[in-house]
Structures are given as C-alpha cells and as structure tokens.
Write a structure and sequence with these properties.
By secondary structure, the chain is an alpha/beta fold. Helix 3 links the parallel strand 2 and strand 3. The mean pLDDT is 91.
Length: 109
C-alpha cells in the first residue's frame, strides 16, 4: 500500500506485531477452572472490565451501568478483573446498589 502511494521500497520496512497471539487463545479447561474458583456461572452472560482499579478507569460507572442492566436482564454477571486502591470502595458500592451477588471481583493472584 505504501509503495502504491509512492514510497520507495528501500525506505520501508515491516514491523511485526509484538503481541503474542497465543496468549489470546481460549483454553476451555482454564476457563472452567476460573469459573469454579470465582463462582461465575458458566450458563449466564458475563460482562467484564479488566483494568487497574484506580479513579481514572471509572469502575464506578461500570457498576452503575451494571445496576441498570440487571433491572432488564437479572441473569447477567459482572466481573471486575484487576487490583488497586478502590477495590474496597467498589465492593461497598456494589452492596449499596444491591448488585453485589452479581458482581465478581477477580483480583490477580
């Protein structure tokens, strides 16, 4: 594509993606183990967020959204994957919103 735009071949190079795509492959055994360890129900939808639990990531909006979704779809589960200083406050917030039983905090071990 660059060559078609007039760039010289000797002045271009390919930089391959540094992401190990193998890490993104789903391992059903590992998924089943995580579900067993966390209490997540494999038969129900799971919506998740994976991020450091700090104010900039706005997990509070995620929980407020979860409360709205649960009014329409009570079987949905919500997973927060991450660790950080706001975890205790978010657990309290989930309790206050009445959704704690559908919110799973998956802290890295």
């Amino acid at each position: 594509m660059l060559l078609e735009r007039g760039y010289k071949k000797e002045r271009t190079s390919v930089i391959y993606n540094g992401l190990d795509l193998g890490r993104l492959e789903v391992d059903p055994v590992r998924v089943a183990q995580i579900q067993a360890d966390t209490g997540l129900n494999p038969g129900k939808p799971i919506i998740g967020i994976s991020a450091w639990v700090i104010p900039a990531k706005d997990h509070a909006t995620f929980l407020k959204s979860a409360a709205i979704v649960l009014k329409e779809k009570p079987g949905v589960q919500f997973a927060i994957l991450g660790d950080g200083p706001l975890v205790p406050a978010l657990k309290t917030m989930a309790n206050e919103l009445g959704i704690a039983s559908q919110v799973f905090f998956l802290e890295r071990k």
